[in-house]
Amino acid sequence: MTSSAVVQVCSALGDENRWQILRMLGERPRSASALAAELPISRQAIAQHVEVLVRAGLVERERHGREVRYVPVGAALSAAVGQLQAAAAGWDRRLEALRRRAEGSAEVSG
Amino acid sequence: MTSSAVVQVCSALGDENRWQILRMLGERPRSASALAAELPISRQAIAQHVEVLVRAGLVERERHGREVRYVPVGAALSAAVGQLQAAAAGWDRRLEALRRRAEGSAEVSG
DNA sequence: GTCACCTGCAATAGATTGATTGCATGACGA
DNA sequence: TCGTCATGCAATCAATCTATTGCAGGTGAC
User: Fold this and answer.
1) For all residues of chain A together, what is the average pLDDT?
2) Is B65 part of a structural domain of the chain?
3) Nucleotides in D strand less than 7 A from protein CB
4) Which domain holds residue A54?
5) Would you say the C-beta of B68 is within 7 Å of strand D?
6) Tell me: the pLDDT tens digits for A24-67?
7) At B30, which helix (H) or strand (E)?
8) What CATH number is attached to the domain comprising A83?
9) What's the total number of domains in chain B?
């Protein structure tokens, strides 16, 4: 892993095609070929996007005969959301303190 | 804007340098020059990262004389987290249904 | 066994991103 | 006014990412 889990999940979620794929898999697990039949990009491009999602832990492979179906993993997203939430909460607290200080005195001694 | 707000926030959060910057700004708002003095990358690189964060709505500019201080915006992160949470919840529900179906019968008729 | 289909790997081209250097502009302080 | 310091813009380079094509390997159907 080149980066922490949250960063990797965010990076994976930082692309609209991957959101689209994730949404489609959420409706119904599908193979890369099946996804390619409904999206304007090639199967290989989709395979690469899915690989990113797999590495981020957001989807899992499921073999069905010669077919590989991809299934989203809700828990991974929930976990990432939890950490983001914690970060947001921490910042909120600190930022509130900062804001109070800023309103009280714009510039104390340089 | 080239993409939706959530995607943009995720994309901005998909880089460790930007997390680092965000954390440092959370501790204490600073200028790009001040950040550059504490990070191993150039001021310009930091300025570009901060620009990404500003475009994502995660930080705001604050002029103080000839200095430009950057302040994180907790609300933006909270909002994004909220949407991610909604997505996660939706998927969780659907995925639970899928899982139940999968466990009951591996492959029903196509 | 053979055919068809789906997956997987490799190589490649184009676009985007991350980081750097150099210079110009603008504001504060002496 | 002049010097200093911080910001801002432009150009450039390297690395990464996205998407494509082509082909080899495997699995299931007949």
Assistant:
1) 85
2) yes
3) 5-11, 17-22, 26-29
4) 5-102
5) yes
6) 998 899 999 999 999 999 999 999 999 999 999 999 999 998 99
7) strand B30-31
8) 1.10.10.10
9) 1
CA A43/CA A77 separation, integer angstroms: 24
Q: Give the length of chain A.
A: 110
- The average confidence (pLDDT) of chain B is 85
Which of B74, B88, B107 minimises the CB distance to A91?
Answer: B74
- Of A95 and A4, the one with more pLDDT: A4
DSSP letter for B66, please. T
Instruction: Taking residues A62-76, report their average pLDDT.
Output: 90
CA–C1' nearest nucleotide, residue B36: D6
d(CA A53, CA A24): 13
- Could you check: is the Cβ of residue A67 within 7 Å of any atom of nucleic acid strand C? yes
| Structure token digits, residue A17 | 């095609």
Nearest to B58 by CA among B78, B39, B42: B78
Place of tokens 């489609």: A24
Please tell me the predicted confidence (pLDDT) of residue A106.
Answer: 41
Q: How far apart are CA B13 and CA A55, in angstroms?
A: 17
**Pair of tokens at residue A4:** 């922490």
Chain B: residue nearest A4 by CA? Answer: B16
Q: Collect the ranges in chain B with pLDDT lower than 70.
A: 1-2, 98-99, 101-110
Residues linked to residue B71 through DSSP beta bridges, in sequence order: B60
